[in-house]
Amino acid sequence: MKLFSGKISIISTEITKVLVDEGDIETDSPAEVELDVQAVLKEYIRTDRELTEKAKDICEKKGVSFSTYPKIKRTLAEQQRFVVGDESIDYIMEQLIRTFMHSPFVEEIYSEDHELKRKMRGILKHHMDIEGDIDQETRAKIKNLEEGTRDWEIEYKKAMAEVKRRRGLI
Description:
Elements: H1 8-21, E1 25-26, H2 30-62, H3 69-79, H4 88-102, E2 108-109, H5 113-128, H6 131-141, H7 150-166
Antiparallel strand pairs: 1-2
Helix pairs in contact: 1-2, 1-5, 2-3, 2-4, 4-5, 6-7
């Protein structure tokens, strides 16, 4: 699962609307709460990108195959107490709840953490679960190339960027 920067505004609006409308949190400034949610999501993306770059640099410096990149990234994430992969939704929800508890714009939280998470999980999962669809669409565009080759890697990145741009994810 992956969080795309193009989805941040949509996710923050949906999370805030659901939690306010269903009486889970009280606020006089829903727009400010949305900005709090956006800040958490943007920080997640920033940290994830930073770890990605560090992992790639390590692969280059050590001269190891990029197939080891996910393991290196996961190790770097663990060192920073950051979560990547399928568990990222739980991590993001924990960060959001902490933000709600400390936000000057959230007057009161009426629901238990597990209830907030249940409502946020559906929204986050819906918007983060599109990665597989994007990958399939991208692979279909370059099916004439042999996977694993340098040409395939270059064309995959170009096709991926095109698909993401078309879907408004970047």
